[in-house]
Amino acid sequence: MSEAADPIMLSALQHWSYCPRQCALIHLEQAFDENVHTMRGNAAHERVDDPGYETFEGVKSERALPIWSERLGLVGKCDVVEFHPDGRLFPVEYKHGKKREKIHDDIQLAAQALCLEEMFGKPVLNGEIYHHGSRRRREVAITQELRQQVRETVAAIRAMLDSGRLPPPANDARCKECSLNDLCQPRAIALCSEHIQLVQTLYDPED
Q1: What is the DSSP letter of 171?
Q2: Domain 8-167 has CATH 3.30.930.10
Q3: Contact 100, 131 (CB under 8 A)
């Protein structure tokens, strides 16, 4: 990473892999708004946002642990990191919904694992997503494929930030749950783009 480049927040990886435009609105335009989903997420994080630790059966659990990666240019925090007696590090990310696999959550967790590996010099092979809605954990293997997705996502976010441009809206099912829907205006922008395309091809004999 260039010395002049600002570090990317770990949360940006989750935002980008869910929707690049959402990521740009939050991390480029500094725009954010609340809805029922973000409030549920805040409620799920209420306890783990309070820094501290506890020990149970030899496993030390650190809450709200600051982490970073100089190599990738990342900074953020882990909801929980478990330090096991055998030296294993185990990041645990809290999410508000029911237990189900979401690649954007897995990418964020893998990014945390890469930060921990760089900080502590130990491999992090697994982590977990704690789904607050179902009170269940889902184990995630930190595979080579997931690690590569982290690197590609970081590169894409860095390119977006350097360009200063908002990606186009998704205008699909993701938009219904997005707290930035009113700011993004995905339907209106999509209709505008369709109108421009129609005008440009209005007198095209091939059409």
Answers
A1: -
A2: no
A3: yes
